[in-house]
What we know:
Number of domains: 1
CATH class: Mainly Alpha
Number of helices: 13
Number of strands: 2
Order of helices and strands: HHHHHHHHHHHHHEE
Structural class: mainly alpha
Largest sheet: 2 strands, antiparallel
Radius of gyration: 19 Å
Bound molecules: ligand AHQ
Amino acid sequence: MNAAANQNLPWARAEFEDKLREKGRGYHIYHPFHVMMYEGKLTKEQLQSWVANRFYYQIAIPMKDAAILSNCPDVEVRKQWIVRITDHDGVGDNVGGIEAWIQLGAAVGLSREDVTSLKMVSPGVRFAVDAYINFAKQRTWQESVCSSLTELFAPHIHQQRISSWPSMYPWIDETGLTYFKKRLTEARRDVEQGLNVTLDYFSTSREMQLKALDILQFKLDILWVIADSIMLASTDIKVEGKDYLRQPVIHFN
Ligand code: AHQ
């Protein structure tokens, strides 16, 4: 078969999965803010800003997943996907991820109100997270499932925090790591389903496979912009020796 014809055939399943995993090169673990975090170079204020800003992403996850469920007519898919909501909201006596994140806030010196009031959330983080929720509301459930595949790379970044924070940030109480330990297993379980849905649904043509790669890039960009916004909001800016005060975050809701 000539090369041109081959260009239009879909990749084999294993090759398509490799292409999805190759996108990991753009994962936010390589963002300077997360590299500085891993290297122990963040100040207490920068870590507090990261926790407070990322809370807006954490409380968005159940709403994003509920949007996916609302678009999905497949009972078997919904029965598996719904655990993502209870993992974050909690169920019965089980503390959910949102409460665990508030505990992370306390471990880095933030009050419950500092975190839950969202007063420290920067405009860029709000816009990026809202874009993710709106994507899940407006696109097909399969496209939204595909966008969750950044979690292919998440166990690595959770493990990094679990391994490095105790030595790099000894002032942070170990209870603050509960969320990351929880996600290690949850992310591995979740991404199994997400990957199978994506490999099945987008393998009908090369064009669809390329669309899946673009959707994953969209979500990688969301995580990257969240880190950009937090870095800008939590770093003193000096231009030619002159201090520029960070934009105060004022919200009226
Ligand atoms: O804590 C995270 C989480 O619950 C999720 C759900 C998933 C999704 O549905 O998009 N993505 C995700 C992520 C979480 N934590 C991020 C981090 O760096 O702590 C990573 C992020 C992801 O990789 O998408």
